[in-house]
Design goal:
alpha/beta; five-stranded parallel beta sheet; five-stranded antiparallel beta sheet; 13 strands; globular
Length: 294
Amino acid sequence: FPVTIAALDYTQTKTRQAMIEVMRYWLQEAKVDGFRCDAACFVPVDFWEEARAVLDQTHPGVLLLAEAEDPPFLAKAFDLDYDWPLYHSLNRVVLEGKPATDLRKTWEASQARFPKGSRHLRFSDNHDQLRAVVRYGIDGAIAAQALMFTLDGVPLVYNGMEVGDATESMAPALFETRKIEWESVGCPPIRDLYRALIAFRKENKAITSGEVVWLENSRKDEVITFLRKKDGKEVLVAINLSNRPLVVSIPTTKPDEFRPVEFPGHLKKGVGTPTRLQLPGFGWSVMERKDLKT
């Protein structure tokens, strides 16, 4: 870290108490909802567990997000961590041409590694990396974010994503003001699309807290497909992570019961049913099962 950042000694009880009091101050005086703990993995996990126990007594429901990817941090201390493995897997698929199944394998490895019920921050854009629209192009960035909105965990909308902002955010720009062009001419209606996806997610328990069931498909090198299920509700998601149009078949029971969900601003729509779904390059489709018999 830069020499301007103090290396605190967390072996000292007074240091721990002082840091916890700082967190309590912000909760009490500024009424913040929680904390994103930068580089949390460089601070002993037992400090975070101690802090969590204290904060829960006075501010139950406080949210703690760890910039870390280590299972012990989600055992007792943090609600969420950053899903860096999935982020890197997405880059491998879109930028390096690895098969889309790499994402499923990465997700399954995380499930096996972390405590049951662990939740992760799903992100395609981050201040430490090149912007998604720079890496994938505008259509690829939207497809990647559609994945984050529909997978389990909590999706991150990084500042400016909703207008396709490509402004550099890595250091040294990280420490300088960079204006976002909120009314950029010629930009697709991403803001309307993301608002609709957020609303759909909020209203649909199958998306917010349902089971993830990965599905096979006929174009598994390019397309990822999965179901979200809860309380008799089923949502099927298909995302083409290549820039080539294709037709995919997704084996599932009673495919004709699925109907596409319409989102304003969704320009790269899939057309058809799971039996025969046409997807443009970086196209995607969200479908709900109707008249599901339980």
